[in-house]
Amino acid sequence: MLLLALTLQIHAQDLAHYKHVVKTLSSAKYQGRGYAKGGANKAGKFLQKEYLKAGVDEVTLQPFTIDINTFCGKMEMRADGRKLQAGVDFSMREYSPGVHGEFPVYHVDTLNFDADRMYADLQKPEYANALVCCDFWFSYKHKKDFARLQKAGDCSNAGLLQTWASPIKFFKAYGEKVVDKPIIWVTPEAIQGVKRVRVDVDNQFLKGYELFNVIAKVSGERHDSCYVFTAHYDHMGNLGKKIFYAGANDNASGTAAIVTLAAYYAKHCPPYDMYFLSFSGEDANLRGSEFFAEHPVVPLEQIKYLFNIDMIGDNNPVQYCEVSDEGMRGYKLFEQINGEKRYFKALNRGDLAANSDHYPFATRHVPCIFLENEEGDAFKYYHTIYDDWQHAVFDSYEPVFRLVTDFVERY
Ligand SMILES: [Zn+2]
């Protein structure tokens, strides 16, 4: 009996299956699961098949639309004639328009900053139609002084170059609008001392672009309440024709985790109905989960507990969580289980934020927890081109799997 129990436990979470799903979703076929080139939607179709293979009772697709700015065409930049590499030396702010042409670079004097002098300098003929280059955090701190540089007509500059330490990020993909002037992220090393740049970047603003959530269900012994597992499967997609953001940690890791949880519950009849929600549009401002929360397939009051798993492809022994007010009773149980079993060295609970798909549920009073393993080896690659299969880390999968399945048994 003991041997049987041990064997069952070892096979409960299936690392090989998990890795297979992470690797597939991070591959070039899905182009970073973005909102152009059909990447996200192709990934959704793959997940639909994976859920069916896992043996769930039903899978439905829930379509919704978004307006989104994308970069799938030309993505070229030269600094004083030197070719820069997209995704490594530079990338685009998500809501930037495209940009074509050659421009002088005006480097903001951040050591002796004087806004009036900057605007006076930009009137000089040598800086006509310049791209204004400044450290991102500096311009953020001086928002008011920099605001005029971003509006058409307010200043004659062509746009902004914002420096960000390598590895360069693409941040969110939530360009629900396009601003007047281009904003380009660039590393300090790539732009230091540069006098002129040539930029050739295409953007495409997609209006009413259709995405879908994938909803899988495993029927349990009781149908009056349910548990819900959520993970977003979309990511940031493309930066030009060749570069894509694979998003192995963000969030192929969570997506794969809930697929293996679906397979587990399909084999071991759960006490209540189980829903597995693979959301799209998360990196476009939580659009898929917002849509679901507005159009739930099961009344939100019937959710006993919701687990949002986003970025567990890391190895921090301390597990980060956020918990809704209604989820605090459950959080005590999480702490108790973790204390007994030592899955993680500790759980670290932070303040609720609109940073992932639990948020639309937390604000609607659903008991829920957000599980994200951050600040480990993989975290530095967050929203960079290096968050890929080669840099994938798997340590947190098993402890998260055990923590949530133990919870369902005991809550
Ligand atoms: Zn994410």
Determine the number of helices (DSSP H or I, runs of at least 4 residues). 12
Question: How are helices and strands ordered from N to C?
Answer: HHHEEEEEHEHHEEHEEEEEHEHEEHEHEH
Small molecules (ligands, ions, cofactors) in the structure:
zinc ion
Instruction: State the low-pLDDT regions, or none.
Output: none
Whole-number count of domains:
2
Largest sheet features: 8 strands, mixed
Radius of gyration based on Cα positions = 23 Å
The CATH architecture designation of the largest domain is 3-Layer(aba) Sandwich
Mean pLDDT: 94
Helix/strand-derived category reads alpha/beta
Would you give the CATH topology of the largest domain? Aminopeptidase
> Which percent range describes the beta-strand content?
25-35%
Multimer state:
single chain
Q: Mind telling me the CATH superfamily name of the largest domain?
A: Zn peptidases
Major beta sheet, strand line-up: 1-10-14-11-15-18-16-17
Measured as a percent range, the helix fraction is 25-40%
CATH C-level category of the largest domain:
Alpha Beta
Estimate the global geometry from the Cα principal axes. elongated
